[in-house]
Amino acid sequence: MNRIGHTFGKLVPLVLFALAGCSSSANLPTTPPPGPTGGWLTLQLSTPRTDDGAVQFSVSGPAIDSVKIVSYDGFAAIDAGSANLLVTGVVGNGDVARIFVPDLSHTSQYRATVAAAAARGTYALQVLDGYRAVLVR
């Protein structure tokens, strides 16, 4: 065997080994993980009273995109990851608003509280014992 043939004979196993590593399925491109999925959380009220005429809520979390009040008159303001809502009318137990968040995987990081409540007709402040605000998917 001549010198070139001898050198080539030594390189063949190394080249085949390198090529085998290149053909591994581990080197195939993968699909990137899905991005965050935005969606709506529902703000629900549980009240011990039957005469609520106005209820103020505070919602906080990583980010809040928008708020839609449902079933009541009222308004909402969003500022730096928090939303403040005021609903008026014959306010009772149930859905109050829908909160759009950019990533539903962070739902557990959102908190809702009842900040104040007032009696219908007189708007005298209610004692907040027994009031509860929750966010559900």
CATH architecture: Sandwich
Helix residue percentage: 10-25%
- Strand fraction equals 35-45%
Distance between the termini: 76 Å
Main pleated-sheet profile: 4 strands, antiparallel
Low-confidence stretches: none
**Number of discrete domains:** 1
Mean pLDDT: 87
Order of helices and strands: HEEEEEEEE
Number of helices: 1
Q: How is this structure best described in words?
A:
With 137 residues, the protein is mainly beta. It has one domain (39-136): Immunoglobulin-like. The protein is 15% helix and 44% strand. The protein is built from one helix and eight strands. The protein has one helix at residues 3-22; strands spanning 39-46, 52-60, 66-69, 73-79, 82-91, 94-101, 111-119, 132-136. The strands form two sheets. The protein has a four-stranded antiparallel sheet, with no helix packed on it. The chain has a four-stranded antiparallel sheet with strand order 4-5-2-7, with no helix packed on it. The termini are far apart.
Task: Please describe the topology of this protein.
Elements: H1 3-22, E1 39-46, E2 52-60, E3 66-69, E4 73-79, E5 82-91, E6 94-101, E7 111-119, E8 132-136
Antiparallel strand pairs: 1-6, 1-8, 2-5, 2-7, 3-6, 4-5
